[in-house]
Design a protein that fits this description.
The structure is a single chain. This protein is mainly β. It contains two helices and 28 strands. The chain has helices spanning about 65-75, 250-255, and strands at about 10-15, 25-30, 35-40, 45-50, 55-60, 80, 85-90, 90-95, 100, 110, 125-130, 135-140, 150-160, 165-175, 180, 185, 190, 205, 210-215, 225, 240, 260-265, 275-280, 285-290, 295-300, 325-330, 345, 350-360. A hairpin with a 5-residue loop joins strand 1 and strand 2 (about 25-30). The chain is globular, with a radius of gyration of 19 Å. The termini are close together. It binds beta-D-glucopyranose. This is Aldose 1-epimerase. Belongs to the aldose epimerase family. Its EC number is 5.1.3.3. One of its GO terms (cellular component) is cytoplasm.
Amino acid sequence: MGSHHGRLSIRKDPFGTTPEGAGVDVYTFSNGRVTVSMLTWGATIQRVETPDRRGRTENISLGFDNLPDYAKLSPYFGATIGRYGNRIAKGQFSIDGNKYQIPVNDGENALHGGTLGFDKKVWKAKVVQTSSHVGVAFTYVSPDGEMGFPGTLTTTVTYTLDFDDDLRIDYHATVAGKPTVLNLTNHVYFNLAGEGSGSIEGHVLELNAPSYTPVDSGLIPTGEIAPVAGTPFDFRRPTAIGKRLREDHPQLVIGRGYDHNFVLGGKAGHDGLRFAGRFTDPGSGRTVSVRTAEPGAQFYSGNFLDGTFQGIGGKTYRQGDAFAFETQHFPDSPNQPNFPSTVLRPGQTYSTRTIYSFGTK
Ligand code: BGC
């Protein structure tokens, strides 16, 4: 979709108050065509409104209309995830011979930063507005020892929208005192036919991923980097998500569908990013393309949405009603010597970027 010139706008409204008495705001920013709402709770994407091929605008992001549901029920809808996206085996790792323990919250493993990750924190927000971009910079300072992680970590994640309908996410972090491990991502769930409209099995997916990281029964990588060729994990040519979802491949059985880290192929372009994947809903024509500086992405086909709660539009979310595509370093990297390192040391700057581009086809 070509760029257009509307008007950039942003507004701030109160969204709720935490039980501890902290105010939570919702920022809504728009380029006149795409409109994004974000909460200071978890630096969370609450709504993403985009037009379909006939120009009809709908919210395509799963979420809630109230803070208590986010705090109690949310499977990380739209949240900024930290310190460590995805799993760390048994919540344990060591850096320079020092051992650390993260409280486990996914069977015997730690998921998405432990029991009280960045998704459950109130972030400071600052409006960002230039002639070409509008959005919010969210900052959170995580004290040394929070959720067992070493070092005081200062994280700023900036979400901006431009006239090309690109939602850009810039992640920056520094650590003081001790080295830490870090794997930031965003956990937005999309249904390109509209939030709450049913299954995403008909969405077509193309992935720039020649291999993936198979997992054990606790969804911890075995350490192997396996080629996708000849398996239901091969999305190098556009393929409907549902086409092979019920095959008896042991990895699909373990994940109850797709819940795997894909290893991205090729080299980054001059902007440091490479194409990761594209999702297309043939019905509405909506597409989302993802580019990232990260080496991997978790493609999750909404397997654990189990019909136990209702979302923002009043519809119950059931298995496969949305997908998540979380750009990231590989799961359990702190315990996997052959995966790219996720260690951040004092004096270093963590800096990465992911772009979601919205369009129609
Ligand atoms: C994980 C899934 C998990 C989902 C929601 C994904 O990143 O890989 O296993 O159910 O997040 O928590």
